[in-house]
Every structure is written in structure tokens, then in C-alpha cells.
Amino acid sequence: MSVSASVVSVFAAVDLGASSGRVMLGRVGADELTLEEVHRFPNRPVRTGGTLHWDVLGLYRGVLDGLRAAGERTGGRLDGVGIDAWGVDFGLLDASGALIGNPVHYRDARTDGMAETVARVLSPAVLYEATGIQQLPFNTVYQLAAAQGTPALGAARRLLLIPDLIAYWLTGRAGTELTNASTTQLLDPRTRDWSRPVTDALGIEPALFPPLRTPGDPAGELLPEVLEETRLTGPVPVIAVGSHDTASAVAGVPAEVDDFAYVCTGTWSLAGLELAAPVLTEDSRRANFTNELGVDGTVRYLRNIMGLWLLQECLRDWGGPELGPLLERAALATPLRSVVDAGDPAFIPPGRMPQRIAEVCRRTGQPEPRDETETVRCVLDSLALAHREALADARRLSGRTVSVVHVVGGGARNDLLCQLTADACGLPVLAGPAEAAAYGNVLVQARAQGTLSGTLTDMRSLLHRTQSLRRYEPCEDRTGWAEAACVRRRS
What we know:
Radius of gyration: 22 Å
Structural class: alpha+beta
CATH class of the largest domain: Alpha Beta
CATH architecture of the largest domain: 2-Layer Sandwich
Helix content: 25-40%
CATH superfamily of the largest domain: ATPase, nucleotide binding domain
Strand content: 15-25%
Distance between the termini: 50 Å
Number of domains: 2
Shape: globular
């Protein structure tokens, strides 16, 4: 990788998560790669009229405040802005370019039963062969099926996924970034274009989507009113990055070898492999694996697992106790006393998570957690078991070998989860960086602007040289995990 020794460029990474958003300031130079969080803001959904919405205007306000904070640290200069966020959700624009209502949250109940409705038109096997996407009840295809016949969809002239909507407001230019588009279950991962057999069968007009962009493509420049609001000195380019946050996070995996697996942990756990081509077999569909697109033509072959959402909801139900002491006690609790299926869609809705976990344990003939400590241990054991099963299936279905597991994202800070994942998988775990999505975002920008040159491997090498990682070795006795897997499968 070539980097000019005299150049240090500064980039803003807008990273929007399901519970909070932040703007990170990245500095890139010769053997230099740093991140500074300059602004964090909550992402609180709002229920109105019986529908759960994203407060997207509040998010946009947070983005503007974050860009202003970034500029305050750089004298008003930014060499680029990149935006990543979660997938599947979208805003609808009318003919004038105005937003038609707040985007609906993927945890809203409007998609209940939509998978069955779509299956009457396109069988699950046909839909998977066309798109390679794991069937999840909130996929964009099911959201659009639920919106059929509504005034909002009837008035819509554009559909913008969440990071593309923010980019549109910043620049006035509309586009659809490829990695996020691949989560819609409407894109063919082989042609990297919309699947006309799917859109035609479901009556979805591809013209709703603006032209596709790939990571590194220009996405416009900050509008004059945005420059005035943020006090930045123009021009400031907006650069398409892996706008699905997992695409940026996988680009931000500091791997030194090709045969690595990853677990991107946060509200969700995304566990899988990076491949050169999708796996579209019937076995892959039955195993509920997804083929999302990544940076530099890669495929993110992974399974979506409920992730730390389970723990977050438990903490919320308990009134927000401090997590550190809970984790210390959970580390001493009886291992694998009870486990639940961390991929069960029944855990998607919010509310009563500790009680729902206990109900599943009772229904499957396992001991119920008796207190908060045992509930936390059940959650983390279940997540580690889900990581084990996902990576074992990914290896089997793809024919790939794995020598190391990289855990990135917020869960990389959770020592117990990382150790349990190493124990469950029987492989060493390298944990970090926690801010992998922001690092991947910044690296793609830096390469697009010429600060860096080279391949994805080169970018990861810079990450490995500049970031502090923690290594966890697996325990020798893994019989308990095999037995727990059998219990989980029987349940």
C-alpha cells in the first residue's frame, strides 16, 4: 500500500446504528490510522398510530451536529464524508424529492405474514436462487409487500435506503449503494443488479431505486446550506463506502490471513466468511445463510444472529444496571446451564426479554435462569453457541477452511463473549477493533481520495499494524459445547 509520508488526510465516518449514531473523525497517513469520536447521539424509534418509526430527522440533526464537531477539530477542513447504517429500511420520496413520512422500523409488525404472502408468488427456493438472501421477516421485499396499495407507496417516485437518504439530504444527489442494496432481497448477487424476475413477479418497479453506486464512487458534495450549517470549508466530497454497516465492518477486519472468519457484534451478530462468489445452493438456503455484497467485489456469506440485542433488552427491562459487575458474576456462573436459539425470530420484538428467555428455557425442558446473572450467562452462552454453529455451517457449505475468528464491533469489548466464542468454536479469537465499521468506512474514503492505494488486503494490513487486538485461546475441553448444540437442535 502506497501512502505519501507527508500526507495526513481527515475523513468523517457517519456510522448509524440501531440504538445510536456517531460521527467519527479519521486521520490517515503513513502508518497512521486513528479514529476519534466527535459526536454521539441516540437513535430512539417512535411509535405513532400503531406503527414503529425511525426518527430520521433526529438522526439527520445528529449527523449535522457531528460534522460541525469534526470541523471544529480540523479548522473546517474535511477530505471526505462517508455514511454507513443498518440495512433493509428505507424512506420514500415524492415527485418533488420530499420525504413521505418517517421510515418504518424493521421491528414493526407490518411485515407479519408477508413471507407467506410473497411465497405464494415466488417460492422461497426461487427467491433464494435469485437473490441469495437469508429469509428474515423484515427484509425490504416483505416491507414493500406490506406497503402495496398504500397511499405512501402510490405517491412514491424514489426509494432511498437509510444511508442513501442521509447522503441525498447532504448532497442533493440520489443513489443506491450496492452493499446495502444487496440486503433488500431484490438484487442478484451475480449480476450485481436488480433481479427483474423478482421485481416483475412482485410488481415492484426498479425505477423506484436511483442508480447503483459501489464503494469508492463519488456521491456528490456537501450542499451550500449544509456547509453553512456545519461551518465546513467546501468543497467537501461525500464518498460511497460500504454503506451497510456490516460491509464496512468486514472491510475493517484486521486480518493477516485469507482463511479467517468474522463475527461482527453489536445489536446483531453477523457470523460468516468473506467469499469471492455467492453460494446459492438449496443446502445454503435451508441453513438460512445470506449472500450480501461487500467491498471490492466480495461476498459476505453469513448468518444473522440476534446478537447483543438480547442483552440490551434484558438490561433495559432491569432498569439499566451496570454491565461490568454482571459480566464478572456471569463468568463464574455455571456454564451452559441453559441455552436458547439466538436466531429465533421470536426474540425480534422489544420488551419482556428476560421473561421470554425464561419461557423458552421452560418450554424446552431446561432450567430457567434464576436471577440476572444466570440470564446474562444464558444469553452469552447462547450467542457463542450460535457463532459456533454459523461458522461450522459456513465452512461446510462453502468448502472453506478457517484458522482464526475475528470478533469486531461492540462485542469485541466483551471479554466473556470473546472467550466463550473461542471455546465454542475451538479456534483462536482475535478481538478488535470495536469501531471496525468506522475504520472500514474511513479506509474506503482514503483510498478513493488517493491518500491510500492498494487492495483490501493492504488496507487490512494497515489496520493490523496500527490497532491493538486481544487474543483468546480456546479451552481444551469442548464436550459441553457439543452437548449444548444437541440440546439446542432438539429444542
